[in-house]
Structures are given as C-alpha cells and as structure tokens.
Design goal:
heterodimer; A: alpha/beta; 6-stranded parallel β-sheet; globular; B: alpha/beta; 8-stranded mixed β-sheet
C-alpha cells in the first residue's frame, strides 16, 4: 500500500479489495511462451475477478510484424487454451481484448521505442490513464539490460504516474552479472520500481509458511536452537530437463533451484517475525537471514556440498534416459542435476543448527517440503525399550503437492503394556479449503500493479544469495567435490546420504 | 466461484418420531463408519476436518430443498456440518423426524472428506427452542452460523434463543416478506444483540460488485478529490414501494456513511420515485431513486447507479448498469413510466431521461404531499405510508452469468466503457463468500443504519 495516500473511504470493508490505478502494461516478448501461457491468461483472470480498473490497457510489444487484430486473436487463443478458469466469459474477454493493442518493437531500435511511446501517450489520452506504466520483460534475461536502456533513451522511464519494470528470474548467473543487471536497471528505474519476479513466491503455499509461523503463537516459542535439532529442505522433481537442455547446461540445479527457491525457503523458515506483512519489513528480515548464513569456504566446500547427475533409470514406472543422453546436452557434461548442501545460520536463534537443502531432477517424485526435526526428550521416562519405535518430534511443512502441515509425536500403543509409537497429526489444506488457489502470476501481477513488492526479490536479496552460491559454483568447477551420479528415480547420489550420516542423521523420505 | 454438484447425496439414515439423542447417536455412527471405511488397513483414521456448523432454519418444503442444496454447495468447498430445521407448526409433542444425508468429497491430493446434512422436522414448541435443540450437535471450536432462510422473527424470543448458540446470523433481506418492517427489526437488532454476533446479509453481498465498481472509480489518487465533489446519486431499481428500495437504500446508506453525508429530507411518491437531500459540509447532494421495470430483474434489484459531480473545475459522471444488453419491459405499467423510460442504454437516452427526471423531481418535491395523497389516499401531511407496498411473490430469481457495464466520463474526455463480470448469485456461492470473509462487517452495520434512516424519512 502506498502509505502516503489517504485510503479510499468507499473501499473500506471490501474484503480482498485490491484494485490498481489505471495503467498500461507493456509486455515485451508478448508473442512468446511466457506471455501466452501465463501473463495474458492471468490478466484475463484479473479482469474476470474485477481486479482491473476501467482504463487498464495492455500493449504487446515484440519483434513479430503482426497487426493489432492478429495479436488480439493470438491473445484470445492463448487465453482460451491456458486460462485457469473455464469456460471463458466472452463478454469479459471481449472487453479485455478491446484494451489490448500491439506495437512491433525491435529491442535494438530506439525508433521502435519512440513509436511505443506515442502509443502509450495515445492510450493515456483515450483511457484516462495518468501516465502509469508497467514494462514486463517476458523475454530472455540477456535482453533485460537492452530493454531498460532503450526505455531510458526513449524517456519512457519518466513522466507523470508510476513507471515499473518487471524482470523474470534468473537475476544474473553469478554475483557480478547480477550486480551489472541491477546497475543497469537502476540507472533507468529506482530500486522500488524494479520488480524481480520469482513466481515461486507468488504461490499460496509459500506464503502459508509465513502465515503458519507468524499467525500462530504456539510454534514460535519452539522455533529455535533450544528445541530444534535440524532442518531439512527438499525440492524434488520427478521430471528431467525436458526441452530445456541448452538452458540447463548453463544453469544446473544449483543456479536453477538452490540459489532462488532453496534459499528463499531457508529465509522464510528462519527469518525473524517482521514488524508487518509489508514489503521492506519482510524483505529486510529475509536479507538478514541470508547474510547470517555462514559462507562455505575452504574444505567445507567439498565437505558440505554434494553434486550429482542423473543417469538412466526408472521413474514412476517408466524407463528414462540419463542426463547426458538428453537433447542439447553435451555427452561429457559436468552440469549437476542434483545439489545438496549443509548450511549454518550464525545468529542467536539458529546457532549450531544445520539446514540441509537438496534439490534435483529425476528424483522419485515431485515434492517440496520443509521438515523441522526436534531434539529427543532429555530423559526417557518410559525406558529405552518403550521408546524404541519413537522418532523425534517433527513438523513438516509440505509446500507441494499435498499442501499441508503434519506434526509427528509419540503416543501410547493400546495394549496392556507401555509402548510408545510415533503417530502423525495431519492437516491438509485441501480438506479444509476445498477451493482452487489463484495462479501465482495473478497474485504477482496484481501486486505489481498496486505497487506492493513484498513478494518480489530485492537487489540486496539477490546479491546475498549469489554471495553464498558463487564460492560453491567455483569450487564445483574446479572439481571439488567430484560430480557423482545417481540413477533416475533415486534420491540422489550416495554422497547426499553420507552428508547427513556424517552428522548422525538421515534424510527424511518425503 | 460457483460450486457444481454432479451427484445426489446419499441418504444414510432416517427415522420418524425420534428423540434428538437418537439422531445424535445415528450421526456418530455414520461418522464412525466412514472413518473406518476410509482408514482401510491403516491403524490411524484419517483426520476429520470441519470448519463450521451451519444451521438453516426453513419453513416449507421449498425452503427446505433450497437450504439442503445450499448446504451441499458449501460442503463441497468447506467441510461442514449442516443442520436444516423445518418447523412443523401443526404437529405436537417433542419428537422429531430426521434424515441424515452425506456427501463425500475426494480432493485430488488429500484424503476424503464427508459432509453430513441433518434435516429435522420439528414441532412448533420445539422450534421455539432451537438453541437447546441443536447444542449437542455443534462442532466444538469452529463457528456456528445460523442461516434464516426466510424472514427472521425479529424481536421474538425464539430468534433470541437461537442466537445464543450462534456466532453469526445470515439472512437475505431480499427475501423478507415485509421488507420495511423486517429492515426496521434488523436495524434494531444491530444494537440489541450480543456484540460478538455477526450479521451477514446476502443482499448486501449481492451489492458488492456495485460497491467495488463505484469504489474503483474513486481509487486512483487523482480522482480522490471527486469524492468531495459528488452532487448527484441516482439509482434505478425494479419494483415499486418502499419494500423494494432496500438495495437502493443500502447503496445510499453506504455512500452517505462512508462520505459523511447528513440526511436533510426525503420524500417518496408513487411510481417509485424517491428524492432525498443530503449535505456534505456546505455542499448539497441529491439522491434520487426511480423504479425502472426490467424484464429479467426481480423486484428490488438494482439496474443502474449514477454518480455525478464536479471537483476543481472538472466534471465527472460514473454510470454503472447491470446487464445492459437485455431488453426492457416494453409495456409501461405505471403512471410515471412514460417519463422515466429511456430509449437506449448508457447513451443520449439516459441523458434525456435524466433531464426529464430532474424536472419531474423538482415538480414532485414541490408537490410531494398532495401527490402522496393522490397516490395513496392518505391524508396530506402523512409522508410515511402505513402499510408497505410490496409484492410477496418470489423476490429472487435464478441467476445467470451477468455483467456490469461501467461508463466513465471525465471532463471533455471521450466516455470510457468497461465491462465486468458478476459471479452467479446463488445462495450457496454468496454464503461461501460470506463465510470465507467473515460476518462481522462494520461497514454493513453502518450502511444499514444510514439506509434505514433514509427509508424512515421517505
């Protein structure tokens, strides 16, 4: 919320009322995959939910030489195909499409950006838009800097109203490139107008971590090193790299998942309570956690990290090829498809508690979860024998697919004797709220229109994450630790299990 | 969000002339059987989720079926226990007839959920003590909602008794049989009942798209000053008589209470015309209602809202219309029909009509007493009809997918047209939204009070 503005008294009491000011959203790469699959359907659904104000307009901008009508037809087809809500409401779609226009833009041509500027001016005049602009880069990351520079050269980054730019992850490929990107973006747009979108943070399930931790009073008192033994974070996918061989060869699991999703989950799990669910308060706390993570260096880089690559195997009953047999992958590729590491957060709350992260492809199933493992009771009141089948208490936050929370604890087995066995108390979101969650892009696009960057990544957050990952990447390039392999359908290389065994622990099987 | 029910519920238990304790035993047995079946070979039964108890109080078979269907819609999205209570005024004794039906939901990624609907036919004497009747059935730790499907007996002991076990009462003021008197009872109840009691009106929920659209217009910061420049509020509604003006009064009360308007005077005449004068600081705001029959609209429903004014030399006009594509009723049926009908939608016809209506309002206001006397036969000077003029036929119609058309005119700029969808307004869908967003709505309370003040002065 823009705190300097007085609230609209007529909006009071309208629950979930989130309406943006009239604005033009320019989608660069509008004819591409991201735009068609995600952005246009998300904007349509926002229109359907009455979240878009009268006057809101979309301008598609891409290299393709197509007419406005052709782009509208393209948009209509994509919305019909990919919209979360079906059937499509023709009257809403028609109204939405009437606000859609198209401008051919070659990112290398300044004149094209000036033409775009004229189009925006025209829309301002016709649709009562006070100069508000959102420039969405639905384009490959290397184009972000060019687009930002051209917008600046064409003076489209200034004027009345707000001017925001949205870029998709990855935000650079290492610390230096991330800084270079930030500098270029910040030359044209102030940091609070740069929206780095990682759709993962738009997921309801990820936001629920904060709700679980900070909307309840019973968990925070035990959420620290006094009672917690360790934390395990698993981001597993059963799929391979599909058609993304060329991209994945450059990225690998470390950059693709751990640098962003993995560390975001660490931050959300370990952060202190923010003063409010407000952009800077939340992001300040996340950055504090990332900065408090002990950097891996020296021998630790080999001892505390594991990398692996999948070989052929069986997943969900199907035989699949190994990574090196995938399309656009080098036959001697050293790219990791599995990454695991042990991290420590050097602050009061988490001192000495290991955070184990693992992420990989071609693992047995798709699952993302955070497991908080508690210490064993200090004294075995019921004797060792009675307790032999009891695991330590654990809270598991399941992010996907069966979103929920489970608490594991010991209970007496009904019998004449006294034996304790572990049982779980499960909460599944789907059984309490049998409703569809909105698509992450809908949430994030609306946040951007409203000017709420809470769920977007800030520059210092990106840099703090790269700061941790760069030494690991460098060490891995030099061969330490060696690249292990694992058969598709297993839980990673044996070194991953050994990483925990060395600490007297084992991975939880999700 | 509309819920679909594609299977019939399963009747799992029925008995006549039984005591409540037998119904309770049967319900527990039904639950235990389900838990055992779902657990299969596992030692642990699946957790049972329930987010609310919904009590529906109905009269007659029609309401009973409506309530059962709505309970199923809710159960399809939120695991709930529902109890439908139908009073049988003629029957005596203390035994009840009871039915238990169940719906089993099987989410793709979670364990099965069973929702039970208990239907009770209870003798009149028992129905007077609903609290005692259902207390053992209430699920501990989750809210209990009382949904009064018809007109709640405002001011009577039986309602007060039922409210003691409930966290909130849900009703539909569009279904009130004597809307004016019920609306008055409701406005009194806001201050009389216990403070924790939530009140939720489905008609108020139906007005949400209107409120959103009006609020949306004023949301951009550069239009915020327009709020202080509103000089006209016009509302078109279907039907005639004060009982059909609840929705229009709600909208007026909402704006007046939000923007600090003070009601100065109001008058109503035949033909459904109402003129009210408010002040906002030193500025005058004129509110007018007009009855515009529309073929597809139930009595009391709004068909258009217009807000106009000027601020800092810039004029503005917001026109919100519902379902403008639909045809008007071609046959004028009231004295003022020829004056009020416009030839088209959101175009010159409306402008012409507004000018005519303005002239008409001036004349009406000057002659309101005598017009009222002519229209009602009541003595001049009596501005409040003794009996509400309302129709008692079905006041809600089945909804289809519909839209709101918004026209925005600011200064000399070209009008801007915007279409927004309105969700289906089934009771189940509205109830779900209400139950998800909460029933303690201070804006509703203050809008109700301000709306009733206007109705009282008409």
């Amino acid at each position: 919320m823009k705190v300097e503005e007085a609230p609209n008294p007529l909006a009071e009491g309208l629950h979930d009322y989130r309406i943006a000011d009239p604005a033009v959203m320019v989608i660069f790469g509008a004819t591409g995959d991201l735009s068609g699959r995600k952005l246009l359907p998300a904007i349509y659904n926002l229109a359907k939910q009455r979240s878009l104000p009268a006057g809101f307009a979309v301008v598609g901008a891409a290299i393709d030489d197509i007419s406005e009508d052709a782009f509208r037809k393209h948009a209509s087809e994509k919305i019909h195909e990919f919209s979360r809500t079906q059937p499509i409401d023709d009257r809403v779609l028609e109204s939405f499409l009437s606000s859609v226009s198209y401008v051919k833009v070659d990112f290398s041509r300044l004149d094209d950006f000036k033409s775009l500027g004229q189009k925006l001016q025209e829309l301002d005049n016709n649709r009562h838009i006070p100069g508000n602009r959102i420039f969405y880069c639905a384009t490959p990351p290397p184009t972000y800097q060019t687009i930002a520079q051209q917008l600046q050269a064409a003076s489209l980054n200034t004027g009345p109203g707000f001017h925001r730019i949205v870029v998709e992850k990855p935000f650079g490929s290492d610390l230096n490139s991330a800084r270079a990107l930030t500098q270029t973006l910040q030359k044209a747009f102030p940091e609070d107008s740069v929206y780095r979108i990682d759709h993962y943070l738009g997921k309801e399930t990820v936001q629920n971590i904060l709700a679980f931790r900070f909307a309840n009073s019973i968990f925070e008192p035990v959420w620290n090193a006094n009672l917690i033994d360790s934390v395990q974070i698993t981001v597993a996918e059963e799929i391979g790299i599909e058609q993304r061989g060329a991209y994945y060869e450059r990225a690998g699991a470390l950059r693709d998942i751990v640098q962003n999703h993995g560390l975001q989950l660490v931050a959300l799990t370990a952060m202190e309570p923010p003063l409010a669910f407000e952009a800077n308060a939340v992001r300040d706390e996340k950055v504090k956690v990332l900065r408090a993570i002990r950097p891996l260096e020296g021998d630790d880089l080999a001892r505390s990290t594991v990398r692996g690559q999948y070989t052929k195997g069986w997943v969900l009953g199907e035989q699949v090829v190994g990574y090196r047999e995938e399309k656009n992958v080098a036959p001697d590729s050293q790219t990791e498809t599995f990454a695991a590491m042990r991290l420590f957060i050097d602050n009061w709350r988490w001192a000495g508690i290991p955070f184990y992260i693992r992420a990989g492809k071609r693992l047995p199933k798709r699952v993302t979860e955070i497991r908080i493992q508690f210490r064993r009771p200090p004294h075995l009141t019921f004797g060792r024998e009675a307790m032999q089948e009891v695991d330590p208490n654990a809270i598991t936050l399941r992010i996907q697919p069966e979103e929920g929370i489970s608490l594991k604890f010991g209970a007496k087995v009904p019998s004449a004797g006294l034996r304790i066995r572990s049982v779980t108390m499960d909460f599944q979101y789907m059984t309490s709220f049998l409703v569809d969650a909105p698509e992450a892009y809908e949430r994030l696009l609306l946040d951007c229109m409203i000017g709420d960057p809470t769920l977007f990544t800030r520059a210092d957050e990106v840099e703090a994450a790269w700061n941790l990952i760069d030494p690991v990447e460098e060490s891995w390039r030099s061969g330490a630790p060696p690249l292990g392999t694992y058969p598709s359908g297993s839980w990673g290389p044996t070194a991953a299990a050994e990483l925990l065994q060395a600490d007297g622990r084992e991975w939880h099987r999700p | 969000m509309s819920a679909m029910l594609d299977t019939d519920p399963e009747l799992v238990w029925h008995a006549s002339d039984v005591k409540m304790v037998e119904v309770l035993d049967a319900l527990n047995a039904v639950r235990a059987k389900f838990a055992k079946a779902e657990a299969g070979d596992s030692e642990h039964a699946h957790p049972r989720n329930c987010v609310m108890t919904l009590l529906a109080v109905v009269q007659g078979q029609g309401e009973e079926r409506r309530a059962q269907r709505t309970c199923r819609i809710i159960g399809a999205q939120h695991p709930a226990q529902a109890i439908v209570i139908r009073e049988e005024p003629g029957s005596r004794g203390h035994e009840v007839d009871a039915w238990i039906v169940t719906d089993v939901m099987r989410p793709a990624t979670a364990c099965a959920v069973e929702c039970e609907i208990v239907t009770l036919h209870v003798p009149g004497a028992v129905a007077d003590h609903i609290g005692a009747l259902v207390d053992p059935f209430l699920v501990s730790g989750v809210p209990t909602y009382l949904w009064w499907a018809g007109t709640p007996p405002f001011g009577r002991a039986e309602l007060h008794d039922a409210l003691q076990v409930c966290d909130a009462m849900v009703f539909d003021s569009a279904r009130f049989e004597e809307p004016y008197h019920a609306f008055r009872g409701l406005s009194r109840m806001i201050t009389a009942e216990h403070r924790k009691l939530g009140l939720a009106d489905l008609q108020w929920s139906r007005l949400r798209p209107w409120r959103e659209t009006i609020a949306q217009f004023f949301t951009p910061y550069d239009r915020r000053a327009f709020l202080q420049g509103i000089s006209e509020l016009g509302i078109d509604y279907a039907g005639q008589g004060r009982g059909n003006r609840i929705a229009a009064s709600f909208i007026t009360g909402w704006m007046a209470s939000a923007l600090g308007w003070k009601l100065q005077r109001a008058s109503a005449g035949a033909g459904g015309v109402v003129v009210a004068h408010y002040t906002s600081g030193r500025r005058a705001v004129e509110v007018n209602f007009r009855s515009v029959p529309k073929e597809h609209f139930a009595n009391g429903e709004l068909s258009a809202v217009r807000v106009a004014g000027a601020s800092q030399g810039t004029t503005f006009r917001l026109t919100v219309q519902r379902d403008p594509d639909r045809q008007r009723d071609p046959s004028p049926d009231s004295a003022y029909r020829s004056l009020l009908a416009s030839g088209g939608e959101d175009d010159a016809g409306i402008e012409l009509t507004q000018r005519r209506a303005q002239w008409h309002r001036d004349v009406l206001h000057e002659n309101r007493e005598s017009l009222h006397h002519i229209a009602t036969g009541q003595p001049p000077g009596e501005s409040l009809p003794r009996h509400p003029v309302v129709l008692t036929r079905e006041r809600r119609r089945a909804d289809t997918a519909r839209v709101l058309l918004t026209m925005i005119e600011i200064g000399d700029g070209a009008p801007l047209r915007h279409v927004q969808q309105i969700e289906p307004e089934e009771e189940g869908t509205l109830l779900l939204d209400l139950l998800a967003t909460g029933t303690h709505d201070a804006v509703f309370n203050r809008s109700l009070l301000a709306g009733f003040e206007l109705m009282r002065k008409m």
